[in-house]
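Weekly puzzle thread! Below is a chain. First person to post its structure in token form gets bragging rights.
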Amino acid sequence: MVRRAATEALVNMVGHPDMMEYLHKEDNLKIWVVFASAYEENYACARAAIGGLAMAIYDPQVASALIKVPNFRDMLRTLMECGQLELMHRVLALTTSLIEHGGQCKEAVTATGAGAFCEAYVASYHDGTKMKEFNWSPTEQSTFAATLSLAKEVVTLLK
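Winning reply:
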């Protein structure tokens, strides 16, 4: 619980110059990647960590540092494929921002296989008919629609 609260507190500081400077360093991002990846052990902390990364990724220095973190590719793939809509939404937002940075950031996303995953996701769920098979709340349906929209954006951006 303390880890989640501390992560959420730091996320609230994203955008502050001192926090952004902190996030410019690859070594500082390693813990964020670890926390985001550990969604099965601590879902709330993972949600906060990936949300914070998605919020900070607009900064080119954060983006450049993040793609150099050794577990970055595993984190991206794992969260994209995890089936937890809130986490998928956040990692897909992070992914689209990385692609939009272009260059090495776009190459790093491509190397994860995110494009193939998103193509399959869109192909499976594009028209919403399979969504009826799930007993989702209106909030979950909305989050699903957002993940689908972001997956379509990833596919478009990678072409």
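Puzzle host: Confirmed. Bonus trivia for everyone else. The longest helix spans residues 138-158.
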